[in-house]
Amino acid sequence: MKSTRTGLVAGLFRPVDASSLGAFRIVFGLVLLMLTVKHWPLLQGHYMAEQFTFAYPGLDFIRPLAGQGMYVLFVVMGVSAVGVALGLYYRLSAVVLCLTYNFYFHCNAAHYQNHTYLIALLTLVMIFLGADRWAALKFGARRPRSTTVPFWQVALLRAQIVIVYFYGGLAKFDYDWLHGEPVGGSIPGRIQAGSIPAFLESLPLGLLISYGGLVFDLLIGWLLLGRGTRKWAFIGVVLFNLLNLRLFVVGVFPYLMIGALVLFVDPRLPRALINLVGVRLGRGSCAARTKDTYPVRPVVLGLLCAYMLVQVLLPFRHFLYPGNTSWTGEGHRYAWRMKLVNKRSFTLFRVTDPKSGESYLVDLTRHMHSKHVGHLVTSPDNIPRFARHLRADAQRKGITDAIVTAHILCSMNGRTFQYMIEPDIDLAECVYSPFRHATWIRRMDPDGTLGVYPRDVDLRGHPDEIWAGYETVWPDLPQEMIRGGAE
């Protein structure tokens, strides 16, 4: 047992060719540059310092930069992404890219997606890797003495990609997913839009896509690691991600995952291919230089174990909360729970003067971007923060210790609408903690029927049944708010 463990540790520090890591560096830098360009239009309106922005627990102090600050940040991020891709002043470029991207990522939790979280992790990890030991520009600096890296640098990135797939598969053992939702609810709209051929309409596409995605995510990571199955896995990854690109809004994720395939080839292959066409980038032959040796470093080994332990355990934390955590949102982030939830909501906030009893309804778009209103139900941990924001706004209007309540009707994966938040509680007095259940979030009625309101159905056609009782709760509720709605 001890000899096996010693062999595994020694294997992590054996030298391998740096060319596959260098090739991934190029891919990663280009993907980050693409993300910078694609997200540039979001800065206007979505990242305004004067508006309320969604925050991650404990990171309320990270706010969008005022004035033109976010645009300057993006320019720096784009330049550093180019620097990483070229390997130019690599360590500096990687640090700047990590700092700028993670600041942007943590500015607004409304834009959290699993692939943006993955990129945040990779920007951190890339700082510590020798990814500039192949195909890197070295102006005014000597080339690195080695063309190899210890195997743990490649293995760490491989493990991260496998975790994303495998935990994405585990998360799909979910009641709704196994019943074809929320994918099934989106099929009619996608057929109408032409992204799915009409002749497939007769098939149970929701179930086929759901179960196909589950099996793919569970197995593909392990198939990528197997030499005998790798080439078939490569084909599967390319086809799967191209399908995702066509069917879902997934940003740069498909490009990143296809590009990450270079990590699973023989580390010598990129250099061999370049040498084959007669272009030599970096020094050395296709083989790793056997004279390179990397001693086992206990500190490095300890950090690797700590990082992997967090990645393995963190996605399971949703089991610590009661109820359906897809509904409450507790433990949903950082867990690779991809495409499991589609929520539609109607949201009304009321601010009441405790002294006079007078109250008013809140125009949410005065406080946040209109597209962020729907994120109140996907990030319910931010509802108390928003309530305190409204209380502070009322304070400026001369209302002291205002009471903030909300009526939020939510439909998850096409279920009938139901209250998500306790409607009579003063939300400004609530405090969210990631270490305990938020009692002001109502548990979802488990008897709610799936698929009653698919994502492409116009909710404005069903106001009476959705909003039944609102006129008695709030008699002064404007009819246009009843007839409207937000997704």
Helix-strand layout with pairing:
Elements: H1 2-12, E1 15-17, H2 19-39, H3 43-46, H4 69-86, H5 90-107, H6 114-126, E2 148-150, H7 151-171, H8 175-178, H9 183-193, H10 205-225, H11 230-247, H12 253-259, H13 269-276, H14 298-313, H15 325-328, E3 343-352, E4 359-361, H16 375-378, H17 383-396, E5 403-412, E6 418-419, H18 463-466, H19 470-473, H20 479-483
Helix pairs in contact: 2-4, 4-5, 5-6, 7-10, 7-14, 9-10, 10-11, 11-12
Report on the structure:
By secondary structure, the protein is α+β, with helices and mostly antiparallel strands. It folds into 2 domains: 2-319, no CATH class; 342-483, no CATH class. It is built from 20 helices and 6 strands. The protein has helices at 2-12, 19-39, 43-46, 69-86, 90-107, 114-126, 151-171, 175-178, 183-193, 205-225, 230-247, 253-259, 269-276, 298-313, 325-328, 375-378, 383-396, 463-466, 470-473, 479-483, and strands at 15-17, 148-150, 343-352, 359-361, 403-412, 418-419. It has a 4-stranded antiparallel beta sheet with strand order 4-3-5-6. A two-stranded antiparallel ribbon has the order 1-2. Strand 5 and strand 6 (418-419) form a beta hairpin. Helix 2 packs antiparallel against helix 4. The longest helix is centred in the first third of the chain and has 21 residues, at 19-39. The chain is globular. The N and C termini lie far apart (56 Å). Mean pLDDT is 85; it is low at 282-286 and 451-487.
